[in-house]
Amino acid sequence: MCRWRSRQDISANLAAFSATLAAGLEAYRRDYAAYYQRCRHADSPAEEWTFSFWNPALAGHVLVTRRADGLFDYGWCLWRRDRGLLHVAETGIRSRGDGLLLKSPGLWAELVCDDPFGQWTVGNETHAVELDDVDEALGRAYGIAVPIASDLEWYAVSGPESITDGYRQNGVVHGVIETEEGELTRSEVSASRSHRWGNGGWCGTD
């Protein structure tokens, strides 16, 4: 039997995912700010890149942080209507000296600036954990491991806007996300990105 979902149901699910994602990012930034203050040196860098995209059928987020000790943290998630949340979190990744190319056992991820303030390529290949409840992403994130890969192109639709220690910029995403259930091909999906750097204070304040 086909089960049709109302626009209100879809909007409610997307709003719940957005609220959970926002809460998770805020918690991560608080934890990172505390970590930074414990471990920082006088010349310690801190830097964060984020990419988000959304429409009524799916929404996703990518987070890359360069920590005070020079290691990287990587986060990726994908919400799909009527499906479990796909969640990736990897911490303490060593820099390869190849820009924002991150590799660890079972993970390949890369952010490439193709045109400053104009275009980025965002890709990965790894296993995600599929979660029935999005709130589980804030805890132990136990679920079913599933292979995923993504190849996305982010294009700017406006100039950057200033935020604390960095900027935010609106754009659109085109590309493909591969899961066990097949390919998700999208074009002109609403998106935004941000880039921050400095002494780490922004992690818990913005």
Structure write-up:
This protein has an eight-stranded antiparallel beta barrel. With 206 residues, the protein is α+β, with helices and mostly antiparallel strands. It has one helix and eleven strands; from the N terminus they run αβββββββββββ. The chain is globular, with a radius of gyration of 17 Å. The protein has one helix at residues 7-39, and strands spanning 46-54, 58-66, 72-80, 85-93, 100-104, 107-115, 119-131, 144-156, 161-163, 166-179, 182-198. Helices cover 16% and strands 53% of the residues. Mean pLDDT is 82; it is low at 200-206.
Radius of gyration: 17 Å
Strand order of the largest sheet: 1-2-3-4-7-8-10-11
Helical stretch tally: 1
Structure class = alpha+beta
Overall residue-averaged pLDDT value: 82
Categorize the overall geometry: globular
Q: Report the order of strands and helices.
A: HEEEEEEEEEEE
Main beta sheet, described? Answer: 8 strands, antiparallel, barrel
Strand segment count? 11
